[in-house]
Inverse folding.
């Protein structure tokens, strides 16, 4: 592999000090002369028709300056908004921001008030009178698919199902299907076939920072919005649709973001704040409470999955079949598609049949969550694989190596893999000391210990990124990019630019532009930023080098053809005395032509995809069902780790979220569709006290599409944990868990 | 001349609505969590040694968080800061921000307090005890030059004077000299020689918005400053010196600016706010009052000028001689150099001798003011020319045409003119109805009426500018530039980009970047922005066109060689069916490669210079000395007027300031050097009620160095008014005024 000077080192992050000293500016920090405060009225009911909304009393409340309802947002109908990770029908997006005719889940926004203080807005919200007609509630994906279920959207008729004669309204918003070979025939040749059903719960991304938006409607019909988002241009595009204005009339300023994980791509508050500002003529800030976030943003779907897999006596998978039903929540759009594409993506299986169903239920509309759809799917397929290994008495990593997808393997959904690194990842897991170490005995003889493995796949995406860069006279480069920085991409991008131009990471000063100052850049999601925006950084550095060569030709009065750039310096090929490092050259720009400004816009092909293999040791108290994690090792192909500490942090973060999903996290609803645990006290995420240090192993199989071989890193680590934990629990207890989370109560019940 | 679609039209200004509705954000609007408020302690004395500063009582005042003095700023010694328009010794710049050892003028900053409220800061300032040793004061340029004058800077010895044996301390900071031919000999051949002396007063730019600065010292040693400035990069550079840090550790965010006219280039509050923030660890905002602005920022110098000119009997100037003594104020750096270069710049005179003296006095350090130094000089030389015309009985415009500088004329300070437009300007003035119209009789028979003319020159400069531009999918271009917008340059730049790319002005969305988001750009001054940043816009549009052609090649799958861009569209030369307007192409970028981002950095040669000819009719009440303006016509060569309304506005604004300078404005000092009129009530600027509509005539002699022929516009209109008014007063009253302002009291005195 190439040797690098900057890439692969661990410099201090550029935004670190500001963040730990409280100087970083988040959306909630926005202050402005004449700022009004918005509050949202939310539905107490999970399913109801809105017969009327009476805002007259609320409007009379002193200090109230304006109230908006769905009438203040456009209804763009059936057109689709591509959000980078997933898409949404614009009618649904609008109706989710402010309910149009019906509320579909408890917490659904109905109206919003702008007032001189948050307290007054809160009081006024309580004075809005909504006349609801209650409707029957359905909050379970299987019940929603059943004959006679309450129908959420009367107009919803799914084409592919209608073809089967079912021309009546349904809660099944979409049916996807992938076929490869002849599974029915192949299953008959299998030495072992395992078929199981699985259920997973609704879980939330759990980002620290609640959603927020401040909008200023200017009197010339332009709009400025400050918010916490994964994609400022995505917000701009969504606002343009919902406010019916050209994108270029909107400026979105992305503030620092306290976590997103996929949940801060679609808009919630931004159109509400914009409509309130338009109505009042003043700037309006709207913040969510934690309860709002849990009840009314986009968690990831609960699901019901059936998997059937068969292998021959040599341990080669011959056929696989799956049916995945994902809860979309209130509006169509669960990640069941990616779930179907990922469920068998780690394996080279010649015969596959996959059906996916996107099903609406009376829960908040789901949105992306780190490798959307893949974790649910892997829990199911990996649990079946573990059982096959048990039956065939084959080491689970050996079995996976035997069946591993590699360059040339065709996935059931169509694509054939380019160079990918699953084999190398599995080999690294096999040879890791963790896998060789025996399970140590614990101090409590009643506790049971076990080990499990699980693997996972995520695509990673490319999409559009823009970068501009300016060389200062002191040799520091201002790097302006459009990707909001959630996981440290500011630094991983700066490092790539530094490598390409021959400077150090601290010589690059990265900043994130608003939508008026940088070119169109897609969302921070799909593990794309270090890959795609990294390519933009590389290309911008090439543009800078070309200009440095041209300028040097002028300084030295020789032809540009005789000049080269290498190893951080520009020099005359024919005259060794003519040589300037970038810093020396930069100092000359103060007198020669001014700053060098460089730019790049890219839209690269998608990378090859990322694979992970996890090993986990657990200890279970059979009496209480509590599961403790003794040791956890996550191995992953990262292509090339630009900043290994960040890569490790991404892997550790993903694992922890996967552990929470596997063991604890779930939305508890009562029969009325009321959420019973909308707080971080009752919605239990793992804390540092619950976990050991997560070991990470970075495998580097370069992606040929990126100049430095980068693959996306951030998402795939969340995929294997629930499956690995289930395998470990089986190893410890001898029972197979088929439902997430594998909470203490469920473990005890399974043991009974 | 070329025909244009956008250039020469009068679109609505992009920032107009925000400014008239109060939505534009100025420095005083900055709010921030934990913001402290700074106040500056200023010297009550015009000249004193600081024996001690005791801040102990002030520090104990509840709410006070920090106090700074000159010890908190670096003293970079003799190094020079180039400020774009003029330069300054960094020791002086630092000592002007916070007095170091001595105070040199009343209002000189001595210390500053940061406290939790402006009121507390104000109270604490009064508790700082400064022990002053009073020193003798000199506030007049001639007295300061005289033998035995109080010396401001003990170490000041001027080299060129020392060569004459005067090796002792002096108040003459600089002596400049320009010689051409042999004036002494030539004067002997003259038919008429006029020699006169003139005095002009200290006047202030009078911008509406007082200086302000908010600084945030980050804990990683970086600094962010929000301020009102003509040059964000200039502020960055000055701060880097005074705070001893690399420029790239500083981010300067230029807020909207409520006027500058040259007075918002050097820093006053920015280093003070930065030092206070560094000391307190919190953001600090410091605002000036109007009194602070008048007493302690940089007005333009009072001056004493001697002029001798001679012409032959045919009305050809044969020789000219001048001696200009300009008050620098507290520190060296008056614009006497440009004054010397401009004084005879309108004329083709073969024999010239000019001496200039930069003289320190106990007044605030002067700074640039619209065509710095030229107005004082033109008042003197144009008054002498008017007297020569009178003596030779030649029409004053005819005389000027006879002697007009043109392409090939050599200026006494060295350069030879390229294509310039003085002749065309004079011809336009001659043929203007105003010049042909007789002076109408007034209603009051005691009042006297008269007409005068005056002409003026200003260089205009080039310097460095950077621009980036992004094409949005809706066909609107985000144009990011580094030039702070004082006079509407946002729109004049957008129009040039629009012209070059084939869009309309409203399709371009201009914005001004901070120092982290745009390449190095010199100050908004020297009438350079529409010229130099305009060239950057043109070049960035070419970069955008090149990329559009490359992308089109990809879309059409043909060679880029076969593609051209013209008239706002990209098309295949060989296939008429392949044609996309920029807007059509832009829509495709959403699916083809993303945004097109373009850039340019330029450092063009200086333009040829600008000339103006003014005609004014006045009515004088001999009893009170009040001068009323009946009619005013300003003719000016603008090269090419991008937005004629703005050009007219610039001309009108310059004329009004010149009228104020000519008739009313002056700093009144008592003998102790205390300023007696530091308010807009007592410092009398012309208002709309004092003035008629100023007629403007735009002459367009294209500057060959600019793609659209632009010359700078903003400064030269301030140059002729005092001289033209003096000529008109002579025409009305028969007396020649030799001192500015020609206030009622002076008019009455002259008539006595």
């Amino acid at each position: 592999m190439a040797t690098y000077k900057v890439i692969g080192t661990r410099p201090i992050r550029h935004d670190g000090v500001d963040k730990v000293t409280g100087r970083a500016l988040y959306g909630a920090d926005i202050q402005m002369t004449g700022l009004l405060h918005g509050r949202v009225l939310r539905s107490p009911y999970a399913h109801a028709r809105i017969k009327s909304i009476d805002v007259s009393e609320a409007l009379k409340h002193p200090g109230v300056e304006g109230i908006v309802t769905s009438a203040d947002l456009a209804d763009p109908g059936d057109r689709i908004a591509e959000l980078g990770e997933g898409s949404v029908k614009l009618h649904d997006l609008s109706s989710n921001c402010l309910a149009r005719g019906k509320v579909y889940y408890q917490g659904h926004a109905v109206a919003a008030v702008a007032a001189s203080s948050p307290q007054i807005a809160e009081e006024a919200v309580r004075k809005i009178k909504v006349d609801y007609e209650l409707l029957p509630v359905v909050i379970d994906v299987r019940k929603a698919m059943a004959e006679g279920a309450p129908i959420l959207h009367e107009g919803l008729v799914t084409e592919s199902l209608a073809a089967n004669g079912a021309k009546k309204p349904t809660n099944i918003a979409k049916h996807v299907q992938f076929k490869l070979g002849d599974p029915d025939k192949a299953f008959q040749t299998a030495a072992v076939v395992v078929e199981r059903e699985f259920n997973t719960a609704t879980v939330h991304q759990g980002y620290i920072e609640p959603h927020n938006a401040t909008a200023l409607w200017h009197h010339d019909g332009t709009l400025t919005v400050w918010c916490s988002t994964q994609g400022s241009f995505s917000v701009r595009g969504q606002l343009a649709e919902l406010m019916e204005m050209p994108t270029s009339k909107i400026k979105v300023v992305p503030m620092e973001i306290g976590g997103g994980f996929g949940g801060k791509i679609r808009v919630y508050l931004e159109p509400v704040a914009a409509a309130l500002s338009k109505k009042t003529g003043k700037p309006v800030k709207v913040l969510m409470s934690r309860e709002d976030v849990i009840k009314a943003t986009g968690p990831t779907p609960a699901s019901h999955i059936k998997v059937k897999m068969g292998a021959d006596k040599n341990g080669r998978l011959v056929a696989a079949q799956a049916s995945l039903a994902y809860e979309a929540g209130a509006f169509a759009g669960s990640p069941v598609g990616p779930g179907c594409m990922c469920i068998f993506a780690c394996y080279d299986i010649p015969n596959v049949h996959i059906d996916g169903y996107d099903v609406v239920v009376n829960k908040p509309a789901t949105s992306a969550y780190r490798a959307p759809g893949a974790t649910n799917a892997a829990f199911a397929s990996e649990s079946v694989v573990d059982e096959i290994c048990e039956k065939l008495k084959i080491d689970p990593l050996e079995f996976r190596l035997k069946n591993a997808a590699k360059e040339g393997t065709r996935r059931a959904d169509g694509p054939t893999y380019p160079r990918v690194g699953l084999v190398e990842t599995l080999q690294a897991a096999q040879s890791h000391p963790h896998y060789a170490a025996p399970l140590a005995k614990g101090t409590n003889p009643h506790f049971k210990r076990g080990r499990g493995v699980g693997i996972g796949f995520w695509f990673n995406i490319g999409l559009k990124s823009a970068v501009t860069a300016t060389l200062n006279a002191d040799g520091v480069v201002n790097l302006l990019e459009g990707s909001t920085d959630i996981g440290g991409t500011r630094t991983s991008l700066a490092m790539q630019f530094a490598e390409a131009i021959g400077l150090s990471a601290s010589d690059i000063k990265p900043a994130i532009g608003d939508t008026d100052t940088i070119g169109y850049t897609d969302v921070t999601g799909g593990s794309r930023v270090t890959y795609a925006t990294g390519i933009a950084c590389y290309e911008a550095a090439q543009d800078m080098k070309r200009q440095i060569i041209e300028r040097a030709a002028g300084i030295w009065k020789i032809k540009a053809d005789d000049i080269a750039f290498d190893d951080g310096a520009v020099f005359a090929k024919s005259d060794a005395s003519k040589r300037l490092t970038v810093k020396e050259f930069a100092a000359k720009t103060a007198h020669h032509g001014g700053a060098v400004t460089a730019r790049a816009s890219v839209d690269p092909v998608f990378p090859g995809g990322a694979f992970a293999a996890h090993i986990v040791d657990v200890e279970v108290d059979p009496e209480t069902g509590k599961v403790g994690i003794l040791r956890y090792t996550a191995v992953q192909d990262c292509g090339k780790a630009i900043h290994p500490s960040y890569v490790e942090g991404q892997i550790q973060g993903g694992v922890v979220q996967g552990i929470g999903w596997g063991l604890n996290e779930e939305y508890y609803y009562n029969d009325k569709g009321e959420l019973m645990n909308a707080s971080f006290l009752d919605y239990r995420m793992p804390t540092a006290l619950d976990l050991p240090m997560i070991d990470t192993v970075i495998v580097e199989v370069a992606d040929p599409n990126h100049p430095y071989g980068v693959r996306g890193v951030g998402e795939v680590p969340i995929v294997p944990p629930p499956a690995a934990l289930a395998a470990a629990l089986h190893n410890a207890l001898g029972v197979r868990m088929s439902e997430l989370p594998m909470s203490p109560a469920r473990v005890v019940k399974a043991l009974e």
